[in-house]
Amino acid sequence: MPIRAYAATTAKAALEPFEFDPGDLRPGQIEIAVESCGICHSDLSMIDGEWGNSTYPLVPGHEVVGRIVALGEHVPASVTVGQRVGLGWFSESCMACDHCLHGDHNLCQTVEQTIVARPGGFAERVRCHWAWATPLPETLDHAKAGPLFCGGITVFNPIVQLGIKPTDRVGVIGVGGLGHLALQFLDKWGCEVTAFSSNPAKTDELHALGADDIVNSRDSAALAHVAGKFDFLLSTVNVPLDWNAYLGALAPRGRLHLVGAVLEPVPVPAFSLILAQRSVSGTPLGSPATTRDMVEFCARHGIAPVTETFPMSRVNDALQHLRDGKARYRIVLQADF
After folding, report:
1. Residue 295's pLDDT is what?
2. pLDDT tens, residue by residue, 255-300
3. Are 236 and 182 a contacting pair, CB within 8 Å?
4. For residue 170, what are the domain limits?
5. Contact 108/99 with Cβ under 8 angstroms?
6. Which of 89, 111, 284, 329 has the fewest CB atoms nearer than 10 Å to its CB?
7. Are strands 90-92 and 112-113 parallel, antiparallel or unpaired?
8. Residue 229: CB partners within 8 Å, gap ≥ 6?
9. Contact yes or no for 280/266 (Cβ under 8 A)
10. What is the CB-side half-sphere exposure of residue 1 using CA atoms within 13 A?
C-alpha cells in the first residue's frame, strides 16, 4: 500500500505531496506510524543539496515520534506493535563490525541515515531497524519529544563521550535548536554553564534554560574577558566564528567541541593547542544506548525542547519559518494526512 508523504523533487524546491511504495519489511525492520516529526536545519541542508548527498524526490524528516504498527522477521519480543518510539538521523547499522560490537553503532561505516537515499519522516509511516527506535517513557511529553532524537542527542552525546564532569566550567556557543537543549543538559549535569549568544533580548530566557552567565558572542572584549576560563566549549553553530578567540577562552586541557556543521574549514593555530594542551574535536549523533540514556535523563529532570507546532500539511510554511530564523527553538510537525 503506498505511503503518503511530502517531498522535494529538486534542490531547493518546495515540498509537494508524494506517494511511494516501501516494499516488504526487511528482517529486523519495524514500521512506525508517524504522529509527529521535528524539523531540523539538516532537513533544509538536504532539501537544498548543500552536502552533496541528496537524492530526489527527497522526503525529509528525522525527528520522528510515532507508534510501531508492523514488525519484520527477527525482531525481538521486547519490541511490540503499539509501542511509542522515537527515531533520529540514523535508521540502521550493520550490527557486525567492530564499532557496532563495541556499542558505537553511530560510528558504523555502513550506517544508514534516515533521509539519505531513503524516505524520511515527513510521511504517514517510516521504517528503521528496531535497535534505532527508542522507546519513549510515559512521563515524557511525546508531542514535544521529536527534536530530542536529532538536536537532543547531538548535544547529549559529547557530554557522555567526553566525560564532562559536574565540576567543569562549560560554555554553549549559539543558543538555537541545539544550544537551548545543551544548556538544559549541562545545567542538570551540574556544570557551571555560560551561554554565548548574540541576542541580548534572550537574557531572561537563557537564564531560565540553565545559563549561569551570558557572554555576547560578537563582542571581542567580552570574549577576551573570559580567556582561559572554560574546560569545555560546545559549538552548535553552522557559521564561521573567531575560532582563535574561543580557543583562547579554554583553560589548560580545555576542549573546543563542534557539533554544528560548519562547511568552511576551521583554522586552528598549533601553538593555541600545544602550549596549553588544548584540543578540538567533533561527534555525530549517539548510539542507541546513549539515546536511551538521554531520554531517561530528560524524563528524570523534566527536560524538553521548546517547540512551535505546525500541521504537516503546512510543511512549507514551517520550513520558511525556520529559514527566516524565527523558530523558537524547534518546530514540530503534527501528522494530519
Report:
1. 98
2. 999 999 988 999 999 999 999 999 999 999 999 999 999 999 999 9
3. yes
4. 153-282
5. yes
6. 284
7. antiparallel
8. 169, 194, 249, 250, 251
9. yes
10. 4
- Output the nine-digit C-alpha cell for 137: 517513557
> The domain that contains 39 carries what CATH number?
3.90.180.10
Contacts of 300 by beta carbon, 8 Å cutoff, 6+ apart: none
Q: Is the pLDDT of residue 201 over 90?
A: no
User: Are residues 100 and 11 both part of a single domain?
Assistant: yes
Mean pLDDT of 298-308: 97
Burial (CB count <10 Å: 0-12, 13-18, 19+), residue 72: middle
Contact yes or no for 92/118 (Cβ under 8 A): no
Does residue 146 sit in the same domain as residue 167?
A: no
Q: What's the rounded mean pLDDT across residues 174-200?
A: 96
Instruction: State the Cα–Cα distance between residues 277 and 320, nearest whole angstrom.
Output: 43
What is the spatial distance between Cα 142 and Cα 84, in angstroms, rounded to a whole number? 9
Burial class of 274 by CB neighbour count within 10 A (0 to 12, 13 to 18, 19+): exposed
Angle at CA of residue 63, ends 181 and 71, nearest 5°: 135
Domain ends where: 253, 282, 311? 282
| Residue whose cell numbers read 531517561 | 296
pLDDT tier for residue 1 given thresholds of 50, 70 and 90:
confident
Contact indicator for 29, 129 with CB cutoff of 8 Å: yes
What integer pLDDT is reported at residue 200 of this predicted model? 81
Residue owning grid cell 556544570? 191
Give the cell for residue 48.
Answer: 537544498
Q: Quote the CA–CA distance of 179 and 196 in Å, as a whole number.
A: 9
Q: What percent of the chain has pLDDT over 70?
A: 100
Nearest to 134 by CA among 68, 60, 35, 75: 68
Q: What is the pTM of this model?
A: 0.97
One domain, residues 97 and 122: yes
Is residue 170 a contact partner of residue 232, using CB atoms and an 8 Å limit? Answer: yes
Tens digits of residue pLDDT in 23-63: 999 999 999 999 999 999 999 999 999 999 999 999 999 99
Q: Which secondary-structure segment (H or E) carries 288?
A: helix 288-301
